[in-house]
Amino acid sequence: MLHIAPYRTRLERIFKEITDASGGADVNAVGGMGAVNDRIDEVQEILAEMPLGLSDLEARMKNEPDFSSFSRKRRLEALADYIRFSIGLIDREIAAKRGHMIVGANDD
């Protein structure tokens, strides 16, 4: 069985650090543009380390136009979306390992 729960915990921690109670980007909670970039890099490192093989998601993040934006809020919103999507993938993988069939729409 893949041990991916620690990766989910790390992603969830970052998500809570960069969002407000409603799940929107919290620019005041994150410092300047350098701090935003550090969070983006950290999420990319987590995805690269995960044993799920999310290379497509990693490639999309590297080419994400919002991460080149001059707006911290826009970068944080994009990062929050990637984290939400990644946590969803992890949750489906954990549930699938328990023997449940998950049927749903494409998240793209």
Regarding quaternary structure, what we see is: single chain
| Structural domains: how many | 1
Shape: globular
Low-confidence stretches: none
Let me know the number of strands: 0
- Mean of residue pLDDT? 84
Give the percentage of residues in beta strands: under 5%
Largest sheet: none
User: Helix content range of the residues, please?
Assistant: 55-70%
Termini Cα gap: 27 Å
Rg calculated over all Cα atoms: 14 Å
Order of helices and strands: HHHH
The helix count comes to: 4
Q: Which structural class fits the helix and strand makeup?
A: mainly alpha
Detail the topology: elements first, then pairings.
Elements: H1 5-18, H2 33-49, H3 55-62, H4 72-97
Walk me through the structure.
By secondary structure, the chain is mainly alpha-helical. The protein has one domain (about 5-95). The chain is built from four helices and no strands. It has helices at about 5-20, 35-50, 55-60, 70-95.
What keywords describe this structure?
4 helices, 108 residues, mainly alpha, single chain
Short description:
With 108 residues, the chain is mainly α. Helix content is 60%, strand content 0%.
